[in-house]
Request: fold
Amino acid sequence: MAETTEVAAADGRPPATRTQHAIRLLVLLAACGEPATPADPADAVKAIRSELRLQAMDFWMRNPDYLADELVTLVEAGKVEASFLNVAWSLLNDPEPDLHWYPMPRWFYGAYEQLDDAFALLETYGLATLKRTGRPGYKSQRNQFFLTRAGASAAVELADEPVLGWYAKQVKLVKKVAGDDNGQTLKDRQYRQATYAGTELGLDIAPIAPHVRQRLAAMHITTAASTTGGQA
Reply:
């Protein structure tokens, strides 16, 4: 099964580069990783212990419409305040998130793109490290991803960069949406979206912006009605 390390945008834009992918992984480790333990590599400060979880969160980083859909779901469930509807709307309509939209193909376990090349770039600069356990090709194989002290410092510096600072802001929303759910739970949540689940193996998962706009419109009407005594 051949999978590329660069994904061309559907509208003809240049493909996402290995550097862009590496930056996404870096900020995900910094924002969404759990504290490292004494048993982890000596220089590690954060860890994501499931590739499934990392892939699921990378999908939301790259697909602002799916991220917006999750925010709407959280508002509906009463898990976050209604102001996140405005955040979701911005994800669909502001130009910056769309500039960072890069679709992912669907494989057997959902959205997937090989991480090796991008993570190797982080390892080259001492920003992160990877630990593999188990036998390659077997279910027992497990990849754990670690952020180093240097990587943590780099992630802080990114937040102040005029262009790259977008990643630091976007990852906060991904963290809000992902919560503490494990990788399988995140994938199960993504599969509840019909477009995602219905994508043929090997094809890019299509956008769902029109669907999310419909949900947002309905939520705004409901919110308005609840604050005016039911008058829509």
The two ends are 52 Å apart (CA to CA). Residues 18-181+197-207 form one domain. Confidence is low (pLDDT under 50) at residues 1-10, 227-232. The chain has one domain: 18-181+197-207.
